[in-house]
Here is the input.
Amino acid sequence: GGWCHAVNSFHSDIIMKFTSALVLLLSLSGPITDARRATNSLASIPRGGATKQSVAFHKDARVWGGDASSTAKEVRGGDGGGTSTMTSHLFNMVKAIVGVGVLSLPAGIAAFGDAPSASIPAAILIASIGSIAAYNFSLLGRLCAMTGATSYKSAWEETVGASTAWIPGSSCVIKTFFAVLAYSMVLGDTFSALFETFGFNVSREKALIGLTVTVLMPLCKLKDLSSLAPFSLVGIAGMLYTALAMAVRFFDGSYAEGGKLAADVAESLRPALGTKGASAVFSSNAFILICMLSTAYMAHFNAPKFYLELENNTIARWNTCVATSFSISILFFIGIAAMGFSTFGGASNGLILNNYSTKDSLMGFSRVAVAFALVFT
Here is the structure.
């Protein structure tokens, strides 16, 4: 499941990464004729949200030549932004970043290693790629402050041109298509296992079709999703519970050889610990984990919306929000990846919850939490 999704999403992810990098590169360097003056202007811009005057300036003068200091004053004039507080913004951003895709990361580590020490270089990769993603996320908000853009597509239009604005739009569609496909796979596995926990034998196909018709389709027809906003916190709590439950099962040895639950799972899903440790990260198979991580933090198409909705959206506050939310997300990713892999080693499944017994009540609640988070948040 997780491996297949990672390979299938590789091409769309490359397009998205290229698009993001190109937007930022061109927006920061392309339109500038006086590099030193523009740099001084850019340093003073991130003091507040973009104003109508600054938007008009960028539309009328695509080349920054005149009085850059006056433009900076227009951009930082007044307190910009929306009404979302820093606290609520943090919860929403963490939920946008931490999806159920994190449950495939143990399989990414298992692609190149089978000894617990393999989780050490994996944690370094998770933190490194997460930091890069956070920096790019922050830059997109800063770009909105500079140009007055309100979306990924409009940011491209303001900096590169309207004729090629289809590139980021298409990239977002492709990326989200594969994300929906991956979530459907997870939902099918999760609900099938939940039915088995309660004594019902329902295939993943039937579970997914039934869920789509009775729950997902009505939700898709809602014109206003604001009623689902309170569930973001519940979704985060569910993922936190899952991480803690995985830690409990690792430390109590329930799935180790001779453990009380080891015999309740299929032979192929039982722990398989070997000798391929930290040094195995230098094998080509490590790119499977890197490929997974390249999409794991992908919430960048919502960066403009997050920036515009932040109350008093100065760049300092924006950067604090981004740094905090991505730091929390990185800890989530490392915790789940390390606990899942350390428990099952090379046998880690693409959806790590599949490794746990359906008779395990502790992990049964995790399946409920993940299903809830997927459907309602």
Summary: The chain has 16 helices and no strands. Confidence is low (pLDDT under 50) at residues 1-79.
